[in-house]
Design goal:
Growth Hormone, Chain: A, mainly alpha, 21 helices
């Protein structure tokens, strides 16, 4: 039974608030605590300190992702395996998203650093509770490859709308009302959107009832033993590191490269990037339909690795206005980024299907929790890496450090491309346990069934 468009739209609505909150936080957090030396803003923490705090916070905060995912898969309640966690975690997720931008007044470097660290830890914990089990619903709601790409594509479109709010909207709010009220607006939007999305799939989410009875150590061993997953995960994570690096670079790039008095403001640059990413999502989705998800994602990784360094040289060519060079580079850099949001979860869903054929268990939250754990651990390298590169120059007179960030990001992405070439899971895994909501809709019964009748032959490319 195909998932209705209304249900897809409601489920994907959560991505508006989620991306708005995540992108606004990534964009402004380092800038808030450690602005450029010539920005005339107060420095709350030295650059190296905030970089280390963010890295340490990401490492420690990532530990809860696997644990929450494991317990969500094992949960049995009248609301299913996912709903209780989302209901409990979402309000506190929003609260701590705001508190990160409300540091104590004049306490000194040590107290501020400790405060930021603990706010980040609480934010990470409740973010995991609100988001991990919610994301685990996607493979259960959409049991076939076309449905998964379709649902994820809607999430990407709405998520890019949230990205626009988080990047452009947060810039407008920061200029108008300051960092604190900007954070309140983003957190409030995220909370409302998460509950709207949950309400839209409540009936189907309740059908996910059968717990995955597997010990914690055994679950970790089974996940780590999945060979395709060991290829997919680092490929996705390397792309995420480069993306986080470029995203945190934006305020510094505009300050040092574009210039304060240029017509090419942060808002214009971000708007062009978002439009380029949105425009290319259907192109990559169409490529996936004609070939396979893995072929389309592989192409997007290669395109990103080749395009990212363009930002490092934009504005240096003689005879062409600097702003024109930067805009053209932004279009090419942003074009493959939409694919980074389109394919990883559907590809992970295929890996989960592959795992269910081996273990006879559906463990969506464990795998997505492992994704989150490794991605948070790895992307924690982005803030200190940005800080170190900025030491080579982040002012209008000395731009080398800012210009090197994008080429470094391109090299990181190309390393992921080399790894992903070995990934070979087909778009439709034939030997699997059918996700329970889909199995019940098909009349199969509790616990799912092997050899889904909805499966189609595997893609060959």
């Amino acid at each position: 039974m195909e998932l209705p468009l209304r249900t897809k739209l409601l489920y994907a609505t959560s991505n508006i608030g989620n991306e708005a909150l995540a992108r606004s936080r990534s964009l402004w957090l380092i800038y808030f605590y450690a602005p450029p030396r010539d920005s005339h803003l107060p420095t709350l923490l030295p650059s190296l300190v905030i970089g280390l705090v963010l890295a340490a916070g990401a490492v420690v905060g990532s530990l809860d992702a696997v644990i929450v995912g494991y317990f969500s898969d094992r949960t049995r309640s009248r609301w299913g395996r996912r709903i209780p966690y989302v209901i409990a975690g979402a309000p506190l997720w929003a609260v701590f998203a705001v508190l990160i931008f409300v540091p104590p007044t004049h306490p000194g470097t040590a107290v501020t650093a400790v405060y930021v660290f603990f706010m980040l830890e609480f934010y990470a914990l409740f973010s995991t509770l609100a988001a991990g089990p919610y994301e685990a619903l996607l493979p259960e709601l959409a049991p076939t490859s076309p449905e998964r790409v379709s649902l994820q594509a809607i999430k990407v479109y709405l998520g890019l709308a949230g990205t626009a709010i988080g990047l452009v909207g947060s810039t407008i709010l920061r200029d108008a009302v300051g960092f604190r009220w900007m954070a309140v607006a983003m957190a409030g939007l995220a909370l409302v959107c998460r509950y709207v999305g949950l309400a839209g799939v409540w009936g189907r989410a309740k059908l996910s009832q059968t717990p995955a009875r597997m010990g914690f150590r055994e679950a970790l061993r089974a996940t780590a033993a999945n060979a395709p997953y060991r290829i997919l995960l680092p490929s996705v994570v390397l792309f995420a590191i480069a993306f986080d690096l470029l995203q945190a670079l934006i305020p510094f790039y505009v300050h040092a490269i574009v210039g304060k008095h240029s017509w090419l403001s942060t808002r214009v640059l971000l708007a062009v990037a978002i439009v380029s990413a949105v425009a290319c999502v259907p192109l990559f989705a169409g490529l996936a339909r004609r070939t396979s998800k893995r072929a389309a994602y592989r192409s997007s990784i290669l395109a990103a690795g080749l395009a990212f360094p363009l930002l490092g040289v934009a504005g240096l060519l003689p005879g062409i206005p600097k702003e024109v060079q930067i805009l053209v580079a932004t279009v090419f850099v942003a074009a493959p980024i939409g694919a980074h949001f389109l394919f990883p979860i559907p590809l992970t869903a295929d890996v989960i299907d592959h795992d269910s054929g081996r273990t006879n268990l559906r463990r969506e939250a464990t795998y997505l929790g492992a994704n989150s754990f490794v991605e948070r651990m790895s992307t924690s390298l982005a803030p200190p890496l940005l800080v170190l590169l900025r030491l080579l120059g982040d002012t209008r007179d000395h731009t080398l450090g800012v210009r090197l960030v994008a080429p470094v990001g391109g090299l990181i992405v190309l390393a992921g491309y080399v790894l992903f070439r070995k990934y070979d899971v087909p778009d439709e895994v034939r030997l699997r346990v059918v996700p329970e909501p889909a199995a019940l809709a098909l009349g199969v019964g509790e616990g799912g069934a092997r050899n889904s009748p909805s499966s189609t032959p595997a893609a060959n490319s």
